[in-house]
Design a protein that fits this description.
The protein is built from ten helices and twelve strands. The chain is an alpha+beta fold. The strands form two sheets. Strands 1, 2, 3, 4, 5, 6, 7 and 12 form an eight-stranded mixed β-sheet that branches. Strands 9-10-8-11 form a four-stranded antiparallel β-sheet. A hairpin with a 2-residue loop joins strand 6 and strand 7. Helix 2 crosses helix 4, helix 3 crosses helix 5 and helix 7 packs antiparallel against helix 8. It is globular and about 55 Å long. The two termini are 15 Å apart. It binds (3R)-3-hydroxy-3-methyl-5-(phosphonooxy)pentanoic acid. The site of (3R)-3-hydroxy-3-methyl-5-(phosphonooxy)pentanoic acid has 16 residues, from helix 5 and helix 6.
Amino acid sequence: MTDPDAPIPARGLPLSARAPGKCIVFGEHAVVHGAPELLFAVDLYTQVFVRAAEVTRLNADPEASSRNGYFRAALELGWPAGPPVDVRAVSRIPRAAGLGSSAAFASALAAVFESARGGTTRSALAQRSFEIERGAQGVGSPGDTSAVVGGGYLAVNGGAGEPLWTVTSGDQRWVVRRVADPGWVWVVAHSGIPRSTGDAVRAVGQRLARPDGPEVLAQFASVATEGIQAVGRGDRPRVAELMRRNQELLREVGVSHPRLEALLEAAAPVAEAAKITGAGAGGSIVALPVPGKETELVRRLARAGGLPFVVRPAPEGAALVES
Ligand code: PMV
């Protein structure tokens, strides 16, 4: 295992890099508005292979930069005056599922570009990866991109100790800290319903602009603040209780979906808790299995129509794959 805080070294093309996906335990949506969030990098990866070429292409598609906003933003922000590049991307992270496929793609590609431009620090990579994702999505927080750059468990706008980095956008700033890994196994299940993160974030923004919005946001913040502490001390019963409260708040702001509710119901008998993870309105749920019941949980979620994965934290964030 490499040092998860290691900088990105200078290398020449051809280059390859990979980045993990992510799973949000507490605070999605509210983090966009400055509240705390807890998330971890998951051991499903996107890997990119980049070499100099005559024409810029992504997976053999020369039109990809007009079709794919993440690719376009990565080229514009990360490779502004660079020569054409042929990029191949392979991923085990399901797309549009709330598991960080776009953050992983953005940060793996940014790691290659930064390396080819002379290397960079991990905190600069976190900022750049966020700018790429936000450039493509138009809205959002740096939670996802920080998790896939940092690896392990991270708190945004919460936790204790020295910050790993601070990410900014205009007047907004998010402070990112490491949280100790409690050593738990999680189960994530994709509902199969694709959705747009940008649309869900904008809808929740409108909901939070209503008169009771500040009160709802304060409840999100208090659940996530306590959740960060509870994960840090490995307190499963408290984490489970807070996940249930977080799920109620996500229902309240309108991002649940009948298919997600069906998965939560299927998980209930063998999970200490389960909730939406990511933007919702489709996408995925995350469950904390009753110890020893992981396989049964996976079976129940599959029977309820989900695509389940057992996930563990990926200790290492985005990194070059040296051959
Ligand atoms: O795109 P997703 O489903 O991984 O969701 C990201 C989490 C949000 O808080 C909804 C948005 C954000 O950028 O933080």
